[in-house]
Write a structure and sequence with these properties.
The protein is of the alpha+beta class. It has helices spanning 10-19, 72-84, 91-110, 117-130, 135-145, 149-189, 213-230, 237-242, 265-270, 300-317, 319-333, and strands spanning 46-49, 61-65, 68-71, 196-207, 247-256, 280-282, 285-297, 335-338.
Protein backbone atom coordinates (compact mmCIF):
# COMPACT_ATOMS: atom_id res chain seq x y z
CA UNK A 1 0.00 0.00 0.00
CA UNK A 2 1.75 3.09 -1.22
CA UNK A 3 5.04 1.33 -0.63
CA UNK A 4 6.96 3.70 -2.88
CA UNK A 5 5.51 6.92 -1.59
CA UNK A 6 8.86 8.30 -0.43
CA UNK A 7 10.13 8.10 -4.02
CA UNK A 8 8.04 11.19 -4.80
CA UNK A 9 10.68 13.16 -2.90
CA UNK A 10 13.22 12.51 -5.65
CA UNK A 11 12.75 15.66 -7.77
CA UNK A 12 12.58 17.85 -4.68
CA UNK A 13 15.67 16.42 -3.03
CA UNK A 14 17.54 16.41 -6.32
CA UNK A 15 17.18 20.18 -6.62
CA UNK A 16 17.82 20.91 -2.97
CA UNK A 17 20.83 18.63 -2.66
CA UNK A 18 22.42 20.05 -5.79
CA UNK A 19 22.55 23.41 -4.02
CA UNK A 20 23.95 22.14 -0.75
CA UNK A 21 27.58 22.13 -1.91
CA UNK A 22 27.61 25.92 -2.02
CA UNK A 23 26.06 26.26 1.44
CA UNK A 24 23.03 25.13 3.39
CA UNK A 25 20.20 27.00 5.02
CA UNK A 26 20.58 27.97 8.65
CA UNK A 27 16.89 27.73 9.52
CA UNK A 28 16.52 25.89 12.76
CA UNK A 29 20.18 26.35 13.78
CA UNK A 30 20.93 27.80 17.17
CA UNK A 31 17.38 27.52 18.49
CA UNK A 32 16.72 26.29 22.00
CA UNK A 33 14.51 23.29 21.35
CA UNK A 34 13.80 22.86 25.07
CA UNK A 35 10.79 25.16 24.71
CA UNK A 36 9.43 23.71 21.47
CA UNK A 37 6.50 21.39 20.76
CA UNK A 38 4.02 23.60 22.54
CA UNK A 39 1.75 23.55 19.47
CA UNK A 40 2.03 19.86 18.61
CA UNK A 41 -1.22 17.99 18.05
CA UNK A 42 -0.66 14.64 19.72
CA UNK A 43 -4.24 13.44 19.56
CA UNK A 44 -4.95 12.50 23.17
CA UNK A 45 -1.56 11.04 24.03
CA UNK A 46 -0.51 11.15 27.68
CA UNK A 47 2.01 14.00 27.71
CA UNK A 48 4.49 14.69 30.53
CA UNK A 49 6.83 17.69 30.49
CA UNK A 50 10.09 17.71 32.46
CA UNK A 51 13.14 19.93 32.63
CA UNK A 52 16.15 18.62 30.66
CA UNK A 53 18.81 16.98 32.81
CA UNK A 54 21.68 17.35 30.33
CA UNK A 55 22.43 20.73 28.80
CA UNK A 56 24.95 19.89 26.09
CA UNK A 57 23.07 20.97 22.99
CA UNK A 58 22.82 18.46 20.16
CA UNK A 59 23.18 15.40 22.36
CA UNK A 60 20.51 15.44 25.05
CA UNK A 61 17.25 13.49 24.91
CA UNK A 62 14.46 15.90 24.09
CA UNK A 63 11.47 13.51 23.96
CA UNK A 64 10.63 9.99 25.08
CA UNK A 65 7.93 8.19 23.09
CA UNK A 66 6.83 5.09 24.94
CA UNK A 67 10.28 5.19 26.57
CA UNK A 68 12.18 5.45 23.24
CA UNK A 69 14.26 8.62 22.81
CA UNK A 70 14.27 11.46 20.29
CA UNK A 71 17.36 13.63 20.68
CA UNK A 72 17.91 17.31 20.07
CA UNK A 73 20.26 16.38 17.23
CA UNK A 74 17.57 14.33 15.51
CA UNK A 75 15.17 17.25 15.71
CA UNK A 76 17.69 19.58 14.11
CA UNK A 77 18.31 17.06 11.33
CA UNK A 78 14.58 16.68 10.74
CA UNK A 79 14.20 20.47 10.44
CA UNK A 80 16.75 20.42 7.63
CA UNK A 81 15.16 17.36 6.06
CA UNK A 82 11.79 19.12 5.97
CA UNK A 83 13.51 22.06 4.30
CA UNK A 84 14.70 19.69 1.59
CA UNK A 85 11.13 18.51 1.12
CA UNK A 86 9.92 22.12 0.91
CA UNK A 87 7.40 21.81 3.71
CA UNK A 88 7.00 23.75 6.94
CA UNK A 89 10.30 23.34 8.76
CA UNK A 90 9.87 24.62 12.31
CA UNK A 91 11.30 22.58 15.16
CA UNK A 92 7.77 21.99 16.46
CA UNK A 93 6.77 20.45 13.12
CA UNK A 94 9.94 18.36 13.15
CA UNK A 95 9.14 17.08 16.64
CA UNK A 96 5.61 16.16 15.57
CA UNK A 97 6.88 14.21 12.58
CA UNK A 98 9.53 12.38 14.59
CA UNK A 99 7.03 11.40 17.27
CA UNK A 100 4.64 10.01 14.67
CA UNK A 101 7.52 8.28 12.91
CA UNK A 102 8.64 6.57 16.10
CA UNK A 103 5.06 5.44 16.83
CA UNK A 104 4.91 3.93 13.34
CA UNK A 105 8.22 2.12 13.78
CA UNK A 106 7.15 0.77 17.16
CA UNK A 107 3.92 -0.58 15.72
CA UNK A 108 5.70 -2.13 12.73
CA UNK A 109 8.16 -3.80 15.11
CA UNK A 110 5.26 -5.13 17.17
CA UNK A 111 3.63 -6.57 14.04
CA UNK A 112 6.98 -7.98 12.85
CA UNK A 113 6.86 -6.06 9.56
CA UNK A 114 9.83 -3.74 10.14
CA UNK A 115 11.81 -3.16 6.94
CA UNK A 116 15.26 -4.76 7.11
CA UNK A 117 18.60 -2.98 6.65
CA UNK A 118 18.99 -4.70 3.28
CA UNK A 119 15.59 -3.48 2.11
CA UNK A 120 16.26 0.06 3.28
CA UNK A 121 19.71 0.13 1.68
CA UNK A 122 18.26 -1.12 -1.58
CA UNK A 123 15.56 1.55 -1.49
CA UNK A 124 18.21 4.19 -0.82
CA UNK A 125 20.26 2.92 -3.75
CA UNK A 126 17.19 2.96 -6.02
CA UNK A 127 16.41 6.49 -4.87
CA UNK A 128 19.95 7.57 -5.71
CA UNK A 129 19.73 6.02 -9.17
CA UNK A 130 16.46 7.87 -9.68
CA UNK A 131 18.37 11.08 -9.05
CA UNK A 132 21.11 10.03 -11.51
CA UNK A 133 23.74 9.71 -8.82
CA UNK A 134 25.33 7.04 -6.64
CA UNK A 135 24.37 6.08 -3.11
CA UNK A 136 27.78 7.30 -1.90
CA UNK A 137 27.35 10.67 -3.57
CA UNK A 138 23.82 11.02 -2.23
CA UNK A 139 25.08 10.23 1.28
CA UNK A 140 27.77 12.92 0.95
CA UNK A 141 25.23 15.50 -0.18
CA UNK A 142 22.90 14.64 2.70
CA UNK A 143 25.79 15.03 5.13
CA UNK A 144 26.70 18.40 3.65
CA UNK A 145 23.17 19.63 4.08
CA UNK A 146 23.09 18.54 7.72
CA UNK A 147 20.59 15.70 7.29
CA UNK A 148 22.81 12.64 6.99
CA UNK A 149 22.22 9.38 5.15
CA UNK A 150 21.30 7.52 8.35
CA UNK A 151 18.53 10.01 9.11
CA UNK A 152 17.11 9.70 5.60
CA UNK A 153 17.30 5.90 5.77
CA UNK A 154 15.36 5.95 9.02
CA UNK A 155 12.68 7.95 7.25
CA UNK A 156 12.63 5.36 4.44
CA UNK A 157 12.39 2.53 7.00
CA UNK A 158 9.44 4.21 8.68
CA UNK A 159 7.64 4.75 5.35
CA UNK A 160 8.11 1.17 4.20
CA UNK A 161 7.30 -0.39 7.57
CA UNK A 162 4.23 1.76 8.22
CA UNK A 163 2.72 0.88 4.84
CA UNK A 164 3.10 -2.80 5.71
CA UNK A 165 1.59 -2.33 9.17
CA UNK A 166 -1.43 -0.46 7.79
CA UNK A 167 -1.96 -3.04 5.07
CA UNK A 168 -1.69 -5.91 7.53
CA UNK A 169 -4.07 -4.43 10.06
CA UNK A 170 -6.85 -3.41 7.72
CA UNK A 171 -6.61 -6.41 5.45
CA UNK A 172 -6.88 -8.64 8.51
CA UNK A 173 -9.81 -6.63 9.86
CA UNK A 174 -11.73 -6.72 6.57
CA UNK A 175 -10.79 -10.02 4.92
CA UNK A 176 -13.02 -12.45 6.79
CA UNK A 177 -16.12 -10.26 6.67
CA UNK A 178 -15.72 -9.44 2.99
CA UNK A 179 -15.26 -13.10 2.01
CA UNK A 180 -18.25 -14.32 3.99
CA UNK A 181 -20.42 -11.53 2.66
CA UNK A 182 -19.41 -12.26 -0.93
CA UNK A 183 -20.31 -15.96 -0.66
CA UNK A 184 -23.63 -15.14 0.98
CA UNK A 185 -24.54 -12.65 -1.75
CA UNK A 186 -23.53 -15.07 -4.51
CA UNK A 187 -25.61 -17.91 -3.10
CA UNK A 188 -28.54 -15.62 -2.39
CA UNK A 189 -28.59 -14.27 -5.95
CA UNK A 190 -27.88 -17.60 -7.63
CA UNK A 191 -25.09 -15.97 -9.66
CA UNK A 192 -22.22 -18.00 -11.03
CA UNK A 193 -19.05 -17.89 -9.00
CA UNK A 194 -16.34 -15.62 -10.44
CA UNK A 195 -13.52 -17.18 -12.43
CA UNK A 196 -9.82 -16.56 -11.92
CA UNK A 197 -6.54 -18.22 -12.87
CA UNK A 198 -4.73 -20.46 -10.41
CA UNK A 199 -0.96 -20.85 -10.79
CA UNK A 200 1.49 -23.43 -9.48
CA UNK A 201 4.81 -21.57 -9.16
CA UNK A 202 8.48 -22.08 -8.37
CA UNK A 203 10.88 -19.40 -7.14
CA UNK A 204 14.51 -19.62 -8.28
CA UNK A 205 16.96 -17.40 -6.40
CA UNK A 206 20.56 -16.69 -7.38
CA UNK A 207 21.67 -15.59 -3.93
CA UNK A 208 23.98 -12.57 -3.52
CA UNK A 209 25.26 -11.55 -0.05
CA UNK A 210 24.49 -7.90 0.60
CA UNK A 211 28.15 -6.96 1.08
CA UNK A 212 29.04 -8.47 -2.33
CA UNK A 213 26.06 -7.17 -4.26
CA UNK A 214 27.90 -4.63 -6.41
CA UNK A 215 30.74 -7.02 -7.25
CA UNK A 216 28.62 -10.07 -8.11
CA UNK A 217 25.42 -8.66 -9.62
CA UNK A 218 26.57 -8.65 -13.27
CA UNK A 219 27.81 -12.25 -13.19
CA UNK A 220 24.77 -13.51 -11.30
CA UNK A 221 22.46 -11.89 -13.85
CA UNK A 222 24.33 -13.67 -16.63
CA UNK A 223 24.04 -16.99 -14.77
CA UNK A 224 20.32 -16.44 -14.23
CA UNK A 225 19.78 -15.66 -17.90
CA UNK A 226 21.65 -18.83 -18.89
CA UNK A 227 19.51 -20.79 -16.42
CA UNK A 228 16.34 -19.36 -17.99
CA UNK A 229 17.47 -20.46 -21.44
CA UNK A 230 18.31 -23.99 -20.26
CA UNK A 231 15.20 -24.37 -18.09
CA UNK A 232 13.26 -27.50 -19.00
CA UNK A 233 10.31 -27.34 -16.62
CA UNK A 234 9.59 -27.47 -12.91
CA UNK A 235 10.49 -31.16 -12.59
CA UNK A 236 14.07 -30.48 -13.66
CA UNK A 237 14.66 -27.18 -11.83
CA UNK A 238 16.29 -28.64 -8.74
CA UNK A 239 18.70 -30.82 -10.72
CA UNK A 240 19.64 -27.83 -12.87
CA UNK A 241 20.19 -25.65 -9.79
CA UNK A 242 22.48 -28.28 -8.22
CA UNK A 243 24.95 -27.67 -11.04
CA UNK A 244 25.34 -24.06 -9.90
CA UNK A 245 26.55 -22.36 -6.74
CA UNK A 246 24.25 -20.58 -4.27
CA UNK A 247 21.03 -21.16 -6.19
CA UNK A 248 17.87 -22.12 -4.34
CA UNK A 249 14.60 -23.49 -5.73
CA UNK A 250 11.46 -23.04 -3.67
CA UNK A 251 7.89 -24.09 -4.36
CA UNK A 252 5.45 -21.20 -3.92
CA UNK A 253 2.50 -23.57 -4.04
CA UNK A 254 -0.81 -22.63 -5.63
CA UNK A 255 -1.64 -18.96 -5.92
CA UNK A 256 -4.62 -17.37 -7.61
CA UNK A 257 -4.21 -14.35 -9.84
CA UNK A 258 -5.21 -11.76 -7.18
CA UNK A 259 -2.72 -13.36 -4.76
CA UNK A 260 0.35 -12.96 -7.01
CA UNK A 261 3.08 -10.65 -5.65
CA UNK A 262 2.43 -7.22 -7.22
CA UNK A 263 6.00 -6.85 -8.50
CA UNK A 264 5.77 -10.21 -10.29
CA UNK A 265 2.12 -10.37 -11.38
CA UNK A 266 2.49 -8.94 -14.89
CA UNK A 267 5.59 -11.04 -15.60
CA UNK A 268 3.90 -14.26 -14.43
CA UNK A 269 0.79 -13.63 -16.53
CA UNK A 270 2.98 -13.20 -19.64
CA UNK A 271 4.98 -16.39 -18.97
CA UNK A 272 4.01 -19.67 -20.63
CA UNK A 273 3.56 -22.84 -18.60
CA UNK A 274 6.91 -24.60 -18.30
CA UNK A 275 8.91 -21.40 -18.68
CA UNK A 276 10.26 -18.74 -16.32
CA UNK A 277 10.02 -15.00 -16.07
CA UNK A 278 13.00 -12.88 -17.02
CA UNK A 279 15.67 -12.52 -14.28
CA UNK A 280 14.97 -9.64 -11.89
CA UNK A 281 17.09 -7.94 -9.22
CA UNK A 282 15.65 -8.32 -5.73
CA UNK A 283 16.90 -7.85 -2.19
CA UNK A 284 17.96 -11.52 -2.14
CA UNK A 285 19.96 -11.35 -5.37
CA UNK A 286 18.57 -12.26 -8.80
CA UNK A 287 15.26 -14.12 -9.04
CA UNK A 288 13.10 -15.90 -11.59
CA UNK A 289 9.59 -17.29 -11.18
CA UNK A 290 8.70 -20.49 -13.01
CA UNK A 291 5.12 -21.24 -14.05
CA UNK A 292 4.60 -24.96 -13.49
CA UNK A 293 0.85 -25.04 -14.14
CA UNK A 294 -1.99 -22.61 -14.80
CA UNK A 295 -5.71 -23.28 -14.90
CA UNK A 296 -8.99 -21.37 -14.72
CA UNK A 297 -10.96 -22.09 -11.52
CA UNK A 298 -14.42 -21.17 -10.31
CA UNK A 299 -15.22 -22.36 -6.79
CA UNK A 300 -15.78 -21.04 -3.27
CA UNK A 301 -12.11 -20.25 -2.75
CA UNK A 302 -11.95 -18.39 -6.05
CA UNK A 303 -14.96 -16.35 -4.97
CA UNK A 304 -13.28 -15.60 -1.65
CA UNK A 305 -9.99 -14.57 -3.22
CA UNK A 306 -11.62 -12.37 -5.87
CA UNK A 307 -13.87 -10.78 -3.27
CA UNK A 308 -10.92 -10.18 -0.95
CA UNK A 309 -8.96 -8.61 -3.80
CA UNK A 310 -11.85 -6.26 -4.55
CA UNK A 311 -12.12 -5.36 -0.87
CA UNK A 312 -8.39 -4.64 -0.71
CA UNK A 313 -8.61 -2.48 -3.84
CA UNK A 314 -11.29 -0.46 -2.12
CA UNK A 315 -9.14 -0.30 0.99
CA UNK A 316 -6.24 0.95 -1.13
CA UNK A 317 -8.39 3.82 -2.33
CA UNK A 318 -9.20 4.65 1.28
CA UNK A 319 -5.65 4.06 2.49
CA UNK A 320 -4.82 7.57 3.60
CA UNK A 321 -7.89 7.80 5.82
CA UNK A 322 -7.27 4.32 7.22
CA UNK A 323 -3.66 5.17 8.00
CA UNK A 324 -4.68 8.41 9.70
CA UNK A 325 -7.18 6.56 11.89
CA UNK A 326 -4.59 3.92 12.75
CA UNK A 327 -2.04 6.56 13.74
CA UNK A 328 -4.66 8.36 15.83
CA UNK A 329 -5.19 5.11 17.77
CA UNK A 330 -1.47 4.84 18.44
CA UNK A 331 -1.28 8.44 19.64
CA UNK A 332 -4.12 7.91 22.10
CA UNK A 333 -2.33 5.02 23.77
CA UNK A 334 1.13 6.64 23.73
CA UNK A 335 3.05 8.08 26.67
CA UNK A 336 5.15 11.03 25.53
CA UNK A 337 7.58 12.82 27.83
CA UNK A 338 9.10 16.18 26.87
CA UNK A 339 12.30 17.07 28.71
Amino acid sequence: MHSNRFITLAPILAVALSACVSGSSNAGDGKDVSVLAQTNDLGGAKIIRKEPTVTQRGTFIRILVNNEPITNSEIQRRVKFRQLRRIKATAAEAEQELIDELLKLQEARERNVLASDAQVNQAFENFSKGNRTTAARMATQLDQFGVGAAHFKQYIRAQMSWNRAVAGKYQSDNAQNSQSKALFELRKSGSAKPETTEYLLQQIIFVIPQDKRAALMKNRKAEALAFQQRYGGCDTAIDLAKQLRDVSVKSLGRLMLPELPPNWSDDIQKTAVGATTAPKETEKGVELIAVCKARVVSDDRAAQVVSQSQAFDKLEQEADGAADSYLAELRKSAVIIFK
